[in-house]
Specification:
By secondary structure, this protein is mainly beta. It contains two helices and twelve strands.
């Protein structure tokens, strides 16, 4: 009986020493993005653009794999919600907005994409949807991959004007 108990104790201790189930899983790597904004020349010259290029940018960051030409899939979850008031793109010689938005931690394992609109007529705060005359991003443009433990700079471009 003592031999059985001794063998059983040794077996339990050797299994515990393996540690396969008790090792901590490594933390997922994350990075951050700082977004600035610009508008394409085509959108800047679009006849549907009737308001000054100042206002609030609204949008979200998604995994690019969850986005198609029609936008995010029904199951897509935004990884970050973007709202940045005070964006001014009136100067055509400026490379991007002075105003910027910084994310929290974002996963580095996936390519991400910013989808959004520039609320130039000031009526998008309630609906968070663009309306006629608002510059918008294209679904598969403005992609980036965060870098672990770094903040990368990305200029998101509004390429169309909703009409």
């Amino acid at each position: 009986m003592k031999l059985r108990i001794l063998v059983l104790v040794c077996l339990v201790l050797s299994l515990a020493a393996c540690g396969s189930d008790s090792e901590p899983t490594p933390a997922a790597k994350t990075g951050q993005v700082e977004l600035r904004f610009a508008i394409s020349n085509g959108a800047r010259q679009n006849s549907a653009l009737v308001d000054a290029l100042t206002g609030t940018v609204y949008g979200a960051i998604y995994k690019k794999a969850d986005v198609s030409l029609t936008g995010p899939s029904a199951e897509a979850q935004d990884l970050a919600s973007v709202e940045l008031p005070g964006v001014d793109l009136t100067d055509p010689s400026a490379a991007s907005s002075v105003a910027s938005w910084a994310s929290g931690p974002l996963p580095t394992a996936d390519e991400l994409v910013f989808l959004g609109f520039f609320d130039v007529d000031g009526n998008g705060s309630a609906s968070r949807e663009p309306d006629e005359g608002d510059p918008v991003t294209l679904p598969l443009s403005n992609a980036f991959t965060p870098v672990a433990d770094q903040t990368i700079a990305v200029t998101a471009i509004f390429e169309l004007v909703l009409n």
